[in-house]
Amino acid sequence: MTFNLLAPAALGLLALGLGPVIAHFTRQVIREERAFGATLLLARLKTRLERRRRVADRALLALRVAAVLLALLALTRPQLSWPETHSDLGGTGRVLIVLDTSLSMDQRGVALGVGTGSAFEAAREAAIAAALGVPDGTKLAAIRTSPPEVIAGWSAGGAGDGASLAAVLATASRSDAAGDLHSALVLARGLAAGEPAEVVVFTDESGPGQVAACDTDFERILAVGGSVVPRVFAPPEPANIAVRGAVYGDGVEGGAISVDLQNFGADEREVTTTLALPGGESLTSFASVPGASEAGPGAAEVRFTVPRQAQGGIASVSVGDPDLPADNLRFFHLPRIGASRVLVVDGDPGSTPTKSETYFLERALAPVGLGRPAVDVVGPAGIAVLDPAVHRVVWMANVADPAPLVPRLTDFVRKGGGLVIGLGDGVTADRYNTAMEGLLPLPLRKVRDIEDAVSADGASLRVGVPSDLLRPFERSPDAYARVRARRVMTVDASASALPAAVLLQWGDGIPALVERRVGAGDVLLWTSTLDYAWGNFPVEALFPAFVDRVTSVLGGETGQAGDALDGIVGESVAVAVAPDAPELELTGPGGGIRAAERTLGQLQFRPDAAGAWTVLGSEGAPVATVAVNTPPAESDVRHDGSILARQAALAPDKLMVHLDLLPMLAALGGLALFAATCWAAWLARAPEAAGESDTSEVADAQA
Amino acid sequence: MTGADAAQRVGDPALLARARGLHLAARRLVAGLHAGPHLAVRRGHEAEFLGYQPYVPPHPLKDVDWRVFARNDRLVVRERRAERELSCMLVFDASADLGSTPAKWRQALEVTAGLACAVLANGDPVGLRIGAGGGGGERFVPARRSGGQLARILVALASVRPAGRAELSKLFADVGERAQGRTLVGLVSDFMEDPAAWSGALSALTRRNVDLRAVQVYDRDELDLTHDEPARLVSPETGGTFPVDPGAIRPAFAEVVTAWRSEVRAAFVAHRGLLVPVAAQDSAVSALAAWLAARPGAP
Fold first, then answer.
1. B275: domain range?
2. Residues 233-252 of B with CB under 8 A from A
3. Cα Rg for chain B, rounded, in angstroms?
4. What is the total count of domains within chain A?
5. Omega before A147 cis (within 30°)?
6. Which candidate from A28, A33, A37 shows the least CB-CB separation from B101?
7. The pLDDT of residue A12
8. Portion 30-69 of A in contact with B at CB < 8 A
9. HEC readout, A292-320
10. What is the Cα–Cα distance from B67 to A404, expressed in whole angstroms?
């Protein structure tokens, strides 16, 4: 609603409003006169008497000022204007219902026919009533906004069209995805095909920029004689508290999870915040979140201390907010904490750091970040410390005699542990082939010096069979090229009966990294040394990332190997997969299998609910886990623009209603003047009566 | 001669009524006076011995005859008769300001009549001098203690009307000239003139060894500005007007009143006189008691 002055120049006359005030002072009549025996003292006060005056008869003065101001204000021709649409639908013969099905329509506290419910329930109820209320012969259609799609095309214009559309609308459901009013109006314009139609939008008009993005649509719909009629359903005051982020970081115990809360309502509120860890544990805290201001939503941070050991996976944070329940959960990736330890069995400690595999492995693993494995280093005789409950990966480095280790290693690997075998001068093929037959990916043959035509440093590394293990490095083949070896242990690749895969190989085709699945675990054979003796791998940039990746995958970085991705409900998620990877399976938050589209090198899907989504490989091994959350924009339930107001701005002649305030102000001014006159007359009579009583009193006293 | 007889001689029934009213009021005052502790005007040390009377508190212990006490173990006081008469001249300020309110005027008349009644009852001569005022009554009644003196004074008071300016300095000078021998001068006024103008004239009285005692009559409604509505306040003496908004000036006016009261009190203290203020709204009994009980020359 706006206030305009058709004759603003008359505002200058408002200064005349001071007239009654001046007159009131100058003509202030002292009605009472009395004898006073202490005028001697008044004379002493005379200067003060002249300076100090008090406004008397305030009400009379106010009435006179009001009368003048109202009269002058009337001269400015004030006008109230507000946008308004006609309430009766069907005037154009075609009514198109757009139903907002976005997440924000889950706002509660909206009046229904009976009681209160969500904005969506109220909107759907009103949409059904609107469909049933249009005149016979009106063509009807319906569109939803999330995702934008036509749910009912134009009806024939028969008598039962309203009921048919009402039945369709009754089955419409709200989604947890973002709404797209602009796309819905584009669909509406397409359905209208340039003909005038009444587009009735049942929405909450919330969300930043939602309405503003539709200016073009409003303009074009109005241009062809149509109109967009909003029906707004939202609580009287917006209120919502949402989890906008959860980040795992440093802290005492096993680290801390910092949770960001945002309050989109005006009032400060306290909510419960619950952290659910992948292992099933949960922690609860209370948080007071300040109300939103013009600067933005109110924000608060809640910190949870994670136990020393926690299972990795997708954790969730929830807030107890009844206003918009659909966005109360947020999912995020949490690394395995505390339980993943690496055992390095160092067969040749070396006299200098560069001759020690342990030195390089420790530095590759030691930038100990949170969630990174801790390293235990033992000699071959210390294999007894290997504990499948604690250790996840064992690195063997140039162990001359593996025989004493094999029983525990075999048991460890079969139970799901990872074993990486690094070679060196102390390794002999016969001992390994004999003792580790059940673990070696391929039998060893002999030590061989290799050369490269380009570099004197030996042959470079290149990719062999594509694998999930090394997928992060596929986009940087140059990193492989810089890794060189002068000496390697050749393997017997002809032993094809073994389920081994050559993941990396040297330039001349000699296997560099061979993988073998043993029981529930994996064994990797690195045919060179893990120190600087046979090649430069430990000093290359690839080495720390390689060691980290191998440890993470074999040890289970998130408790389930695979990529950790994030997604938004309603938005496409692409998971990179090997082109020749076997059959993949997508499971949703409930564990049920969901449809996904497999393209070359990608698996695409569009999650319809928040939660943990998992892409599983052929043997049920996770290829990727996706933490899917609701769209953040939908949590912002503050009103941001009015469809009606924006249309009115575009076509004021069609939608603005004007009310001329002149008659009302003139009448009020006259009324105030009349009241002031009556009051003044009454006051003028008062002193006469008072004087009479004074006279009689004095006479009585004299008698 | 009673007040009623004097009024009958005048022949004015209204005057008769007012004189009777004054007489009744004066008797009430004196009766109230005897109910409480007080000292007579003429009791004093320079008196002829009359006899002994039992000591009754709060009679000053200095009047106790300690020799008798030593002999008989009885506390008695010696009763004496004044060697010389103490003539009392009441000066009544009948200026228009004193009559600005009926209550103030009535209180001033009754206080004056009461004083006259009390002095005569004590056997001392009393007279009256009226300053300013209107009406056809006597302006000066010489001090006597004859039987009709009270009636003369009451008729004179009943005859007077508030009018004109008191011109206190001239009045005090006139009274000073008339004072003969040892005299007690009782002033009844609102003293609503600039103290700087009349305080010097008090010397004309004190020079003649006059015992100076004053009753200041005021109206509490006036000095507290108790009314709320703006009004034009008119001086009964000069006719000057003051448009006043009481609510706006009340605090400042209170300061002026306090300063003026201090000036009036200071004028009497400087001349070893007694000043007893009494509000028109209050009983005058205690004021009269204080006036009568005061020792000569001890304010």
1. 3-32+85-293
2. 233-238, 240-245, 247-249, 252
3. 21
4. 5
5. yes
6. A37
7. 74
8. 30-46, 48-49, 52-54, 56
9. CECCECEEEEEEEECCCCECCEEEEEEEC
10. 139
β-strand partners of A292: none
pLDDT at res. A167: 94
Q: Are residues A412 and A299 in the same domain?
A: no
Residue whose structure tokens are 């470079």: A460
Band (pLDDT 50/70/90 cuts) for residue A227 is confident
| DSSP code string of A483-550 | -EESEEEEE-TT-TTS-EEEEEEETTS-EEEEEEEETTEEEEEEEEESSSSSBSGGGSTHHHHHHHHH
Q: Taking a C-beta distance cutoff of 8 angstroms, is the pair A311, A266 a contact?
A: no
Among A258-272, A393-407, A484-498, which is the least confidently predicted range? Answer: A484-498
Q: Parallel, antiparallel, or unpaired for β A256-263 and A298-305?
A: antiparallel
| Pick from B277, B190, B20, B289: nearest CA to A36 | B190
Same domain, A226 and A310: no
Residue type at position A502? V
Which of A42, A54, A700 is closest, CB to CB, to B248? Answer: A54
B210 within some domain: yes
pLDDT digits (tens, 9 = 90+) for A667-694: 998 998 898 888 878 876 654 444 444 4
CB–CB of A102/A145 below 8 Å?
A: yes
> CA quadruple B101, B106, B112, B114: dihedral positive or negative?
negative
The better pLDDT of the pair B262, A34 is held by B262
Closest residue on chain A to B232 (Cα)? A33
Complex ipTM tops 0.85: no
> Which of A503, A537, A555 is where one domain is finished?
A555
- Where are the alpha helices (H) located in chain B, listed in sequence order? 3-10, 13-35, 66-72, 102-121, 149-159, 168-178, 195-198, 203-206, 220-223, 246-270, 285-293
Residue A573 and residue A594 in one domain: yes
Positive/negative CA dihedral, A268, A271, A276, A282 = positive
The CATH number given to whatever domain includes residue A608 is 2.60.40.10
Say which of A34, A36, A52 has its CB closest to residue B248: A52
What's the pLDDT at B32?
65
Range of the domain at A272: 248-334
Q: How far apart are CA A298 and CA A32, in angstroms?
A: 63
